Amino acid sequence: MGRPPCCDKVGIKKGPWTPEEDIILVSYIQEHGPGNWRSVPTNTGLMRCSKSCRLRWTNYLRPGIKRGNFTPHEEGMIIHLQALLGNKWASIASYLPQRTDNDIKNYWNTHLKKKLKKFHSALEPNNDINMSHDHSTTTSSSHRFLSNKTPPPPPPPPPPTTSTSHGGGSS
């Protein structure tokens, strides 16, 4: 049995968020903290579903998110990590502080994948490269092409995960 829907979708507002809605959501989260997203629309009066509230906070409003252009170093890191990890955007985002997995995924799909495809087709004009297997076609020369610098060093190990024990431990 799956999870019930986040809302009944009746009377739910869709489309772009207004600055007023952003202020309401940020104020609520500053007071109550992020979490229990199902209660946010009811407690704030926002006519948005809980998933929309959660994604708005996570991808746009959360403090510390870096927005805007990616640096050449970030581009190189994304290319390198995508070659190693494939399309595991959350894992890739763990190596790029302040960038969201959604932002990285969108940047890959709208910019970097096309740059790599163009670069590879220039190297091998008679070879049609299937970019659905992106991670297998990336080379270190791609890094230099995209950033005009040497490739970035290997990524650091992923940040440690914290786990909490919920069972009755032994003493």
From TrEMBL:
Q: Does the keyword tRNA processing apply?
A: no
- Single GO MF descriptor: DNA binding
- Phylogenetic classification of the source organism: Eukaryota, Viridiplantae, Streptophyta, Embryophyta, Tracheophyta
Query: What PROSITE patterns does this protein's entry cite?
Result: HTH_MYB (PS51294), MYB_LIKE (PS50090)
Where in or outside the cell it occurs: the entry states: Nucleus
Q: Which CDD domains match?
A: SANT
Q: Where is the composition biased (Pro residues)?
A: 150-161
- Which UniProt key words apply to this protein? DNA-binding, Nucleus, Repeat, S-nitrosylation, Transcription, Transcription regulation
- What PANTHER family does the record point to? MYB FAMILY TRANSCRIPTION FACTOR, TRANSCRIPTION FACTOR MYB60
Residues of the region (Disordered) are 125-171
Keyword hit for 4Fe-4S:
no
Q: Where is the Myb-like domain?
A: 9-61, 62-112
Which domain of life does this protein belong to? Answer: Eukaryota
Task: Please tell me one Gene Ontology term that the record gives under cellular component.
Answer: nucleus
Q: Residue ranges of the HTH myb-type domain? A: 9-65, 66-116
Q: What is this protein called?
A: Transcription factor MYB60
Which GO biological process annotations does it have? response to abscisic acid; response to auxin; response to stress; stomatal movement
